[in-house]
């Protein structure tokens, strides 16, 4: 598992040629390796990575869960009862995500509210 920090992209590469593909990515992008093999001792817990400490926010987690469930901001607004413009502000960090709002989003997405806070 590798994370390209800019543009933010998560990539999982397996099989023949994976090392060559990773090498190519590292030449063009700032890549942080989160693990090289799930059975390997080099696995890094994502919460301990530089990426997680600097790039993950409640808003980015909200966006990630929304996209995971293949929803637009308008879809989530309808499901949660929270206005689309407020969802945008939460996702961009213009508005601080509260536990009350996280609970509404969690219910709408079928996720635990704690998952929205790194």
UniProtKB/TrEMBL annotation:
Name of this chain's protein: Transcriptional regulator
Matching Gene3D superfamilies: lambda repressor-like DNA-binding domains
Lineage: superkingdom: Bacteria
Pfam families linked to this entry: HTH_3
SUPFAM superfamilies the record matches: lambda repressor-like DNA-binding domains
GO MF, one example: DNA binding
Signal peptide positions on this chain: none
InterPro entries in UniProt: Cro/C1-type_HTH (IPR001387), Lambda_DNA-bd_dom_sf (IPR010982)
HTH cro/C1-type domain residues: 66-116
